[in-house]
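Board notes, transcribed. Complex of a protein with adenosine-5'-diphosphate.
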Amino acid sequence: MSKEPSHIVIRGARHHNLQIDELRLPKLSLTVFTGVSGSGKSSLAFDTLFAEGQRRYVESLSSYARQFLGQLEKPAVEHISGLSPTIAIEQKTAASNPRSTVGTITEVQDFLRVLFARLGRQHCTDCGAPVEALSSAEIMARLKQLSGKQLLLAPLFEQRKGEHRDLLESLRQRGFVRVRLDGEVVRLEGLVALDKKRKHQLELVVDRFSPSRVSLQRLTDSVETALREGQGLLLAQSATGGEALRLGRARACAQCQIAFPALTPQHFSFNSPLGMCPACNGLGVQTQLDPKLLVPDDRLSLRQGALVPYASVMARGSGISFGIFDALRKELGLDLDAPWRSLPKRQRELVLYGTKDRRVAVSWEGTHGRVSWPMQFEGVVNLLMRRFRETKSEEMRRHYASFMGESPCPDCGGARLSPIARSVRLATLSLDRLSALPVAEAAKALEQLELTASERQVGGELLREVVSRLEFLDSVGLGYLSLERSGATLSGGEAQRIRLAAQLGSELSGVLYVLDEPSIGLHPRDTQRLVETLERLRDSGNTVIVVEHERGTIEAADHIVDFGPGAGRAGGAVVFEGTPRQLLTADTLTGGYLSGRLVVAEPRERRAGKGELLLLGASENNLKELDVAFPLGTLTAVTGVSGAGKSSLVSEILQPELSRRLHNAQGRVGSFRSLQGADAIDKVVLVDQSPIGRTPRSNPATYTKAFDEIRQLFAQTPDARALGYGPGRFSFNVADGRCGACEGDGVKRVEMHFLSDVFVTCEICAGRRYDEATLAVKYRERSIADVLETSVDDALELFAAFPSLVATLKTLADVGLGYLHLGQPAPTLSGGEAQRVKLSRELARRDTGRTLYVLDEPTTGLHFDDVAKLLRVLGRLVDAGNTVIVIEHDLDVIAAADHVIDLGPEGGSSGGYLVVAGTPEQVASCEESHTGRALRALQRRGLGGSQYKPTRSARGRVKKDA
Ligand code: ADP
Ligand code: ADP
Ligand code: ZN
Ligand code: ZN
């Protein structure tokens, strides 16, 4: 056997913009790839190393799998040696499967299912009494342990009327002497019939014995007899009274006469028919009309349109629907003019859920005059639900669906599990209660379980596995999440760290892990712990490559590869390789920013703002009735550890409420009491990381509308005019002109069954998207397909003569996307790139000067130098009078903000408070604030905020150590 190679050696890497002749990456190390956005980090990490690792893996699979091999794009690289099996942990949340939860993603759920099946105590789903299945030997052993004289009984029936003559006769004939009737021992002799009008409880007396003295033979006989007569169940009644002990061979509740199955792990899986709640099929939620969506503004009266679906009818004041409300007013006193929120609960329920059995006389103007008809009103909720089910029109169905929201399943309350599973307990905890706890608490609860020696033997290993994974989640700052939390509601950063937890648990070694910015969504406080987990992966014999921009992670690397010098064509090379210390003196952008030679933002006076938005009583998720002021005309950063409540405040309350008021948006708004000062803004724009389009047909050029102008230009060329081609000819949404085989996509989707879908280049047009005739039309010697492959920077030169097109393209360059190809398909853009394309479209629009922009971690995917550009762009928006609110962990951005709102102090239930609000200096001087502490640490090193001039108001409060 040859020795395991010490390096991964890459030769001739040419994928996308890469121009790397040879690169040696140390194995069993933590290596960070850094460099400006578009410099080629992902092209090497994911498109080359991971793609090649995956290809080699598929090659090693069955011939069935190999048939797809030709369709996996081969990375443009001459040679890679020393490559291990490769696992990529990316941020993209795995297609939002409603059945994935934190528990299933980390595989903790699998361990818990086995644990509960083996060690759980079953209880009756009806009365909660313990249900146990014992062998005869176990029953005997339990009886022997009792003290004092015992009556051994076989239960016959409970709560039953009748004379029961036959039963009594048969017992007598078989030689039994006594029964216990309604708690009283009586002789069978002479007992012919029971009082047929009363309900009785009857047990057969099988034996009387002293446990310490009874012979084994006699006890065996008696137990067998009792179990036979009692249908698998017997009672031991102490002569001193008290509750009888119930022991049985069957898993059944004697009380309720319910039999229970023997438990298997499947009984604890909400994905198995055996374990799922039958009411919601294991989804935990029910889709229902949501009164909050029906009445988004409860300050309105019914006549003013409180009920959105009836707003126009009520305004008109005629028609049958209006007739119904009018009848409810006349006959049941419904107040049509009082604000919805001031109506008594009874009246609101009347409107929502109907008149039950009561009819009201509804009258309306029909085609043949006025009609009056007694009607039972089923209620708006039931009515719309019925229409939703019955309508044939897709459009109407969507309309009704827009008022529907998800509410917890009424049967399982969101626990997803069947009643049987929910009544199994480990000590005092059921699986669903355990899954609802924050994982940090679940770990503690499991650690404190008291197990007997034999239970420990059966479950100890499982328990250790579960606890260690839960503790890991806690250690990467996710202790506030619960196992039941649905995967679809996790942020990208949370999802990635959870998958990391699953990997750590798997204890693989000899693997190459490739991670994409694991610090996303993580507060600087927790970076150290993230680094520790990466080191743990390395120390178990793996190679870890991380694409990362975050200062702390870069500084912790064993080895750094810095890409650049620029982006796109100006990048693709390795400009530095070495240790963090060596990087400080290297002449690269990264080295400059790390050492403090370059700064992300120049010192300036902080903006005081003009007026404010005042949000009162915010209480969504973990928010504790917060009152928060957002100063207008400033750049405000909302900060706090993961789970502190930042998104709950900004993305679930502030932004949707403003969208509702200003743009009539219909989405759900989180709970709060009131919002004041909204008159000062006239537009709210969410610039998030969701894709700009899901098909390869959308791209930066189409999204920013630059493509419309480009098509006009092509239509005006002499070639096009001679052929009679209009602008439509150059669109891939129009059949004339585009490639017929791929319908203008340039690629075809192939389902991979065992891997995620891949796009392969169309073999007819070779990815050019257009037909030959269209491609023959040239503008300055370029076809329309050539233009789509031009970078934004090059296009700026190409179209320099067209000011409005230049203005649009310039906004893309301004946000640091000059390297993007105009036609780069939307699905290949990263979340951070998509977010900046959206931002550039906003820049291209005429802003109102009173717009509020909301951004969630806009620094995702950005190098220090890109952050500097971003801050300039945001500054421009604010200087024009607009307000920008960012949720951010990046200390450079926080330090450059005018105002900081710091939430926390911790995540989950110990978060949701306002820790401190003010200038970065004020936050830095707050002891309790984790953000403040991180800012101070940065300032002490002469980085980040130290070069800022504190504003007058703040100066007095800046601490000495700052
Ligand atoms: P980084 O990871 O450093 O931000 P990338 O490796 O994503 O940079 O990009 C390097 C270059 O490759 C950029 O010019 C980018 O536009 C280009 N590129 C990236 N992905 C694709 C793609 N799927 N198709 C075409 N070009 C791409
Ligand atoms: P941050 O944005 O600061 O990371 P969030 O606002 O996302 O924090 O979360 C605050 C708290 O609310 C956390 O305890 C989180 O688990 C909880 N939470 C957020 N979204 C949901 C959701 N969709 N379902 C249940 N809990 C949620
Ligand atoms: Zn019961
Ligand atoms: Zn094609």
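Residues 945-962 have pLDDT under 50 and may be disordered. The pocket of zinc ion (ligand 4) is lined by residues 739, 741-742, 746, 762, 764-765 (CB under 6 Å).
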